[in-house]
Amino acid sequence: QWDEPRVCSRRYLKVDFADIGWNEWIISPKSFDAYYCAGACEFPMPKVVRPSNHATIQSIVRAVGIVPGIPEPCCVPDKMSPLGVLFLDENRNVVLKVYPNMSVETCACR
Amino acid sequence: SHTAPARPGPPMATYGLAGDRDPQRLPGDRAAAPGPGAQDMVAVHMLRLYEKYSQRGARPGGGNTVRSFRPRLEVVNRRALYLFNLTSLQDTEMILMATFHFYLEPRGPQAHEVPCKQRAKNASCRLLLPGRPARRLLFRSLSPNTATQGLLRGAIALAPPAQGLWQARDISPIVKAARRDGELLLSAELDSGEKDPGVPSPSAHAPYILIYANDLAISEPNSVAVTLQRYDPFPAGDPEPGAAPNSSTDPRVRRATQATGPFHDNELPGLDEEPAPAPHSPHGHKHALWPSPFRTLKPRPGRKDRRRKGPAAFPAAAASQVLHFDEKTMQKARRR
After folding, report:
1. Using one digit for the tens of pLDDT, what is the confidence trace for B221-231?
2. In chain A, residues 17-46 whose CB comes closer than 8 Å to chain B
């Protein structure tokens, strides 16, 4: 994904349950768009990376260099969405569970 | 209640509980999606719930979990008992509602209804027909050690339908009480009041139970793996059946990445004593933090390979530790 922007942003990731070996008991969905966050949170951070106040301060401290060992803020999921999964339990009964935070909607520097 | 499905096509199921009031026929390909047994009402119903609650923000019955339970048919004294094993309910799942879904056969003789229909075509008229014993649903909870008869948990009177109907009844108090008492084997019996009601065939319109629950642990870290990951990294024949999923009799191997020095590593203090994760490992340090349900997906090397790698890895690991110290520190250490 060389064309992806260098700055922190959401990147596309499709997870196929067959790839991680869960397809034998998961009925639906077979796959879902999970996405992921990647990219730099360099000073100065643009608004688009939605930095927290703490991340902004940390970024400045790192840029100034007065305190050694301070890393860049991290590019992490900010808003996430749930995913309903239909699967068979150990007794072969069908179960529906709605798992929170399964798919990334937005990323941010935190 | 709802009309019985027309076979062999996909059943048209509508359910009047838990807010599922949007009857619509399922396309045949969707009904077949769950694989074998997809034509039964449980699978169809669950697939409909899945489609409904896959929409953003929708919560099944106000919770996050719906469990279905199929029964095992047992015949005792020529009476059909449907046995439900509810033990797969998790302790963290708070029951919001439980519903019992069943197919109620119409009753003859039809001639009795003729004068009634002439007077009024309503259900209450049929209910007033004399000479018909009331039908009841009887629920008993069973202790694992007892026989088929158990504690009567509830009885629900049923009005006879004009035609074959799938019906649903709220059995929340029954299931909650059974769970509270730790008796999660539940039997359901349709008491027709007749001496010899006949025994239904096992596959014909088997009833089922749906339990709507709120899993309090679903927001916990790793909950998706606790409930969904079942990969056994130690298949049958592996010589360490009693070992924990990630345990090994081999010494732990320290796999240090290229050291970047004591600073600028962005790692939590204290975690650097744990083995570093392999590149692209989905678990990373979580191996140490969430040990029990997380199992490695990587194929396990054979015992010979592990023996070969084990001793060889130790000198390398020891050498890698030296790299963590800068020259000044090393000089100081040597002087001391």
Report:
1. 888 888 888 76
2. 20-22, 25-29
